[in-house]
Here is the input.
Amino acid sequence: MDGSEQIEVGLPALRGTLAVGPPRPFTGAVIWIPGPGGRAAGLRGAEALGLGVVVDGEVPSAAEVMDLGGGAVRTLDLTRRLLVLEWVDGTTVQRLRHLAASLRGDARDPEPALGPTGPPPSSVLSSFVLELLRRTDFDPLVRPMFLRLGFRDICRDLDPHEEQAVRMATPDGGVFRARLDCGNGRLVVLADPGTRPAPNLPGKLAEAFPQARVLPLASHGVPAGEGYRVERALPTSLADTQAWVSGVREGLLRLMGAYEPDRARTHEEILETFGAADTLSSLMLPAGARDLGAGGPRGWERGLGSSTERVH
Here is the structure.
């Protein structure tokens, strides 16, 4: 271990340090890389989770990382401190490479197990992610990942588009967006550049989130009146996170009702009829009670953890 870099290991069962040197490339590491504002560095978009698998880590300064939210592969610099949650074996890495090719429509390198009648690649990826997260004990180090998963559901319910944010319009033509700072567990509400600040936004935020603190972002370089942060008590368990996400969804609906009442009523009717997206609830099912269908975790279980190192 002399001369090796030390990196944090995130699962409580794996608490400790792991030596990283030339004999141990990053390929197969399941990682979370927090970036500015709790986002995952280099992994953006509506489906991004900030949870990735290193599919080629032979050169850590230019490693290929597959985001497990949408399947996009990015080149990232992994030479800084990382949070490693798990390791997967080479077979699983190869399957993920094929899956990424299928998701981007590359017919030259499809996932062999899918076939013309198999499950959609996105379904297979979702099943793999759920299996990984079921193996991850809730911990402050991984809480941002679960918050991001829940907020992604909120965005799908209230404002599905190309980024993870809920947009709202004001009667005078202004637009503001609510995003999640998952690293700190708070909402960040900002007016779009060049638009008028929402009238009485801090008051409306306080009404929408009565149990939260609403603070201006002026001290962070944001012009006065154009940005606020909404701070709520951080969840301490998976069940608590589920309730936290539900509270954020309800608060955003109340805020939407203050500025766009017709749109809020439409969303409320849809949610009442079809229910809210709730990925977190599927993580709380006992192992014998879940049924993810063809292409689910059964096809991945041999790879998951078969090369996991436990460090005490």
Observations:
- The radius of gyration is 21 Å.
- The longest strand covers residues 175-181.
